[in-house]
Amino acid sequence: MAMRADFIWMNGKLIPWDQAQVHVFTHALHYGSSAFEGIRVYETAQGPAIFRGVEHYERLHYSCKVARIPVPYTVVEFMQATFDVVKANQQRSAYVRPLVFRGYNTLGVDGRGCPVETIVASVPWGAYLGKEGLENGVDVQVSSWRRMAPDTLNALAKIGGQYVNSQNVVMEAKDNGFTEGIALDVNGYVSEGSGENIFLILKGQIYTPPLGNSILGGITRQCAIAIAEDFGYSVKESVIPREMLYLADEIFFTGTAAEITPVRSVDRLAVGEGKRGPITEKIQARFFGIVEGELPDTHGWLTPID
User: Fold this and answer.
1) Quick check: is 158 catalytic?
2) Which of 158, 203, 275, 282 is flagged as catalytic?
3) Predicted TM-score (pTM) above 0.90
4) Does any domain span residue 262?
5) Pair 197, 230 in one domain
């Protein structure tokens, strides 16, 4: 079923969904000259709340800086747009997609003469890797596609064109009967999923790849580290060889869409006992407890909409 809503915020105003259109010669359509974010709005007992909206919009500004796309709106204005569109669509929970992109003026590869357009959309969206995956874990493969090498693309920025690489990873995985793929970096070390950061647990120690392994500096990744440290675990950002995926007692993905999703097998080898592990379950329960308003938001991650 297609995801849609009644209204969308575009270039500073709310308009009906079907009126949010661009020309077929839009520069971003041809060359991927866009930057985007994914933000969740969670329904809590106190009403809908934006999860780490400020941090997401700060990263959007960073991505646009890297892509040399001038951003027409401040973080505060983006937050207000998010309030407005979620309220207009009467949503209690939603997935919010901000997008800044080059419109139409020229078909030259250097699109800096093109106008910059902006949307903030909010649509209903459940568990990205499936509700069953949140509880039982997902089956993944190590992809034949590598993440981008240094000085080729900008791994730390969410730039639209770069996600052709992610499409290769996830389409290959699904064609091979898996839910998701894990990409290695150019040196053969563990990087990330097509749209998720990755953590693994071995003998009670939590590991995750550092920023230098061609990963996105995920905001939910930061949350998982903070929650793990709240429980007294140490998290090592260290280079992870592929075979550690097969030795791990537990593995989980993090991301705005994936939230905290356990991995139960890699390349058809069971992770631990082949189900969600106890440390993953603790981190996951704390995460959902906070974002759903049932546990104190001690880190200040939620911004109420009402």
Assistant:
1) yes
2) 158
3) yes
4) yes
5) yes
